[in-house]
Amino acid sequence: MTTPTLTCATCGEIHALEDMELTFARPEPIDQIPEAERATRVKQNKELASIGYERYFVRTLLPLPVLDRDEPYNLGVWAEVTEEAFFRIRDLWDEPEQDKEPAFRATLQNRIPHLPETCGLPVMLHLTGPKTRPRLAVPPSDHPLHAEQCQGITAHIANQYTQGYGAQV
Question: Which of 166, 169, 162, 146 shows the shortest CA–CA distance to 64?
Fold first, then answer.
Protein backbone atom coordinates (compact mmCIF):
# COMPACT_ATOMS: atom_id res chain seq x y z
CA MET A 1 0.00 0.00 0.00
CA THR A 2 1.43 3.38 -0.95
CA THR A 3 1.21 6.48 1.20
CA PRO A 4 -0.92 9.25 -0.36
CA THR A 5 1.09 12.36 -1.15
CA LEU A 6 0.51 15.87 -2.39
CA THR A 7 2.89 17.99 -4.43
CA CYS A 8 3.24 21.40 -2.81
CA ALA A 9 2.36 24.26 -5.17
CA THR A 10 4.64 26.60 -3.17
CA CYS A 11 7.89 24.64 -2.83
CA GLY A 12 7.39 21.84 -5.39
CA GLU A 13 8.22 19.14 -2.83
CA ILE A 14 6.07 16.10 -2.18
CA HIS A 15 4.47 15.97 1.28
CA ALA A 16 3.06 12.72 2.75
CA LEU A 17 -0.52 13.43 3.80
CA GLU A 18 -0.35 11.20 6.90
CA ASP A 19 2.58 13.21 8.25
CA MET A 20 0.83 16.53 7.88
CA GLU A 21 -1.14 16.80 11.11
CA LEU A 22 0.02 18.41 14.34
CA THR A 23 -1.29 16.82 17.54
CA PHE A 24 -0.86 17.99 21.13
CA ALA A 25 -0.64 15.38 23.91
CA ARG A 26 -2.20 17.66 26.54
CA PRO A 27 -3.46 21.20 27.06
CA GLU A 28 -0.96 23.99 27.74
CA PRO A 29 -2.13 24.59 31.34
CA ILE A 30 -1.28 20.96 32.18
CA ASP A 31 2.12 21.33 30.50
CA GLN A 32 2.78 24.25 32.87
CA ILE A 33 2.33 22.03 35.94
CA PRO A 34 5.63 20.45 37.03
CA GLU A 35 5.64 16.78 36.00
CA ALA A 36 6.12 15.64 39.62
CA GLU A 37 2.83 17.37 40.59
CA ARG A 38 0.71 16.15 37.68
CA ALA A 39 -0.09 12.78 39.26
CA THR A 40 -1.87 14.46 42.18
CA ARG A 41 -3.37 17.48 40.41
CA VAL A 42 -4.35 16.20 36.96
CA LYS A 43 -6.80 13.58 35.72
CA GLN A 44 -6.37 12.78 32.04
CA ASN A 45 -7.22 10.09 29.56
CA LYS A 46 -6.93 10.25 25.77
CA GLU A 47 -10.05 12.40 25.38
CA LEU A 48 -10.74 14.35 28.60
CA ALA A 49 -8.64 16.09 31.25
CA SER A 50 -9.08 18.20 34.36
CA ILE A 51 -6.93 20.10 36.80
CA GLY A 52 -8.53 19.42 40.16
CA TYR A 53 -12.10 20.66 40.22
CA GLU A 54 -11.13 23.96 38.62
CA ARG A 55 -10.36 23.51 34.90
CA TYR A 56 -11.82 21.10 32.34
CA PHE A 57 -10.53 20.13 28.88
CA VAL A 58 -11.69 18.12 25.87
CA ARG A 59 -9.46 16.76 23.09
CA THR A 60 -10.71 18.01 19.74
CA LEU A 61 -9.90 18.50 16.09
CA LEU A 62 -9.61 21.91 14.51
CA PRO A 63 -10.06 21.32 10.76
CA LEU A 64 -8.37 23.59 8.24
CA PRO A 65 -9.28 23.04 4.58
CA VAL A 66 -6.23 22.34 2.43
CA LEU A 67 -6.32 23.74 -1.09
CA ASP A 68 -6.13 20.99 -3.73
CA ARG A 69 -6.99 18.30 -1.18
CA ASP A 70 -10.33 16.70 -0.35
CA GLU A 71 -9.56 16.09 3.32
CA PRO A 72 -8.82 18.92 5.80
CA TYR A 73 -5.66 19.30 7.83
CA ASN A 74 -6.74 18.57 11.41
CA LEU A 75 -4.93 20.19 14.28
CA GLY A 76 -5.29 17.83 17.27
CA VAL A 77 -5.84 20.40 20.03
CA TRP A 78 -7.43 20.72 23.46
CA ALA A 79 -10.27 23.07 24.33
CA GLU A 80 -11.21 24.29 27.79
CA VAL A 81 -14.89 24.20 28.69
CA THR A 82 -16.93 25.05 31.76
CA GLU A 83 -17.54 22.41 34.41
CA GLU A 84 -21.19 22.17 33.33
CA ALA A 85 -20.22 21.68 29.66
CA PHE A 86 -17.54 19.14 30.58
CA PHE A 87 -19.98 16.89 32.43
CA ARG A 88 -22.61 17.28 29.70
CA ILE A 89 -20.04 16.27 27.07
CA ARG A 90 -18.97 13.31 29.23
CA ASP A 91 -22.60 12.22 29.65
CA LEU A 92 -23.17 12.39 25.89
CA TRP A 93 -19.84 10.77 24.93
CA ASP A 94 -21.31 7.44 23.74
CA GLU A 95 -24.69 8.75 22.58
CA PRO A 96 -25.35 8.13 18.87
CA GLU A 97 -27.17 11.46 18.42
CA GLN A 98 -24.76 13.66 20.38
CA ASP A 99 -24.16 15.71 17.22
CA LYS A 100 -27.62 17.25 17.70
CA GLU A 101 -26.43 18.95 20.91
CA PRO A 102 -25.91 22.72 20.53
CA ALA A 103 -22.26 23.83 20.28
CA PHE A 104 -20.39 24.64 23.49
CA ARG A 105 -18.39 27.82 24.06
CA ALA A 106 -14.76 26.96 24.72
CA THR A 107 -11.25 28.33 24.50
CA LEU A 108 -8.34 26.81 22.63
CA GLN A 109 -5.62 25.67 25.05
CA ASN A 110 -2.56 24.95 22.89
CA ARG A 111 -0.01 27.27 21.32
CA ILE A 112 -0.04 26.64 17.59
CA PRO A 113 3.25 27.44 15.86
CA HIS A 114 3.48 30.16 13.23
CA LEU A 115 0.44 31.99 14.61
CA PRO A 116 -0.14 34.80 17.11
CA GLU A 117 -1.16 33.56 20.59
CA THR A 118 -3.82 30.86 20.38
CA CYS A 119 -4.13 29.87 24.06
CA GLY A 120 -7.39 31.37 25.25
CA LEU A 121 -8.73 31.97 21.73
CA PRO A 122 -12.54 31.67 21.79
CA VAL A 123 -13.87 28.68 19.82
CA MET A 124 -17.09 26.70 19.49
CA LEU A 125 -16.94 22.98 20.28
CA HIS A 126 -19.26 20.74 18.24
CA LEU A 127 -19.89 17.11 19.16
CA THR A 128 -19.74 14.94 16.03
CA GLY A 129 -20.61 11.40 17.11
CA PRO A 130 -19.49 8.68 19.50
CA LYS A 131 -16.73 7.42 17.19
CA THR A 132 -15.25 10.79 16.22
CA ARG A 133 -13.56 13.60 18.12
CA PRO A 134 -15.40 16.86 18.65
CA ARG A 135 -14.55 19.61 16.17
CA LEU A 136 -13.76 23.25 16.80
CA ALA A 137 -14.89 26.26 14.83
CA VAL A 138 -13.20 29.63 15.22
CA PRO A 139 -15.86 32.36 15.34
CA PRO A 140 -15.35 35.49 13.22
CA SER A 141 -12.39 37.49 14.48
CA ASP A 142 -9.24 39.13 13.19
CA HIS A 143 -7.14 36.13 14.33
CA PRO A 144 -5.44 34.46 11.32
CA LEU A 145 -6.73 31.06 12.43
CA HIS A 146 -10.28 32.19 11.61
CA ALA A 147 -9.20 33.15 8.08
CA GLU A 148 -7.32 29.86 7.64
CA GLN A 149 -10.37 27.88 8.72
CA CYS A 150 -12.64 29.79 6.34
CA GLN A 151 -10.35 30.23 3.32
CA GLY A 152 -8.09 27.20 3.62
CA ILE A 153 -4.34 26.72 3.67
CA THR A 154 -1.81 25.33 1.21
CA ALA A 155 -0.16 21.95 1.67
CA HIS A 156 3.04 23.90 2.26
CA ILE A 157 1.56 25.74 5.26
CA ALA A 158 0.13 22.47 6.63
CA ASN A 159 3.59 20.93 6.35
CA GLN A 160 5.13 23.96 8.09
CA TYR A 161 2.76 23.48 11.03
CA THR A 162 3.85 19.88 11.40
CA GLN A 163 7.55 20.33 10.66
CA GLY A 164 7.84 23.50 12.73
CA TYR A 165 6.71 21.83 15.90
CA GLY A 166 6.55 18.06 15.41
CA ALA A 167 3.60 15.80 16.10
CA GLN A 168 2.50 14.73 19.60
CA VAL A 169 3.84 17.76 21.42
Answer: 146
Chain centroid offset of residue 8 CA: 23
Contact between 111 and 28 (Cβ < 8 Å) = yes
pLDDT, tens digit, 9 for 90 and up, residues 64-106: 999 988 889 999 999 999 999 999 999 999 999 999 999 999 9
Residue partners of 39: CB distance under 8 A and separation at least 6: none
Range 161-168, long-range pairs (CB < 8 A, 24+ positions): 161/20, 161/22, 161/73, 161/75, 161/112, 161/113, 161/114, 162/19, 162/20, 162/21, 162/22, 164/113, 164/114, 165/22, 165/113, 166/22, 167/19, 167/21, 167/22, 167/23, 168/23, 168/24, 168/25
Q: What is the model's pTM?
A: 0.86
Is residue 88 classed as helix, strand or coil in its secondary structure?
A: helix
Structure confidence by residue, pLDDT tens digits, 37-72: 999 999 999 999 999 999 999 999 999 999 988 889
- 103 burial class (0-12, 13-18, 19+ CB within 10 angstroms)? middle
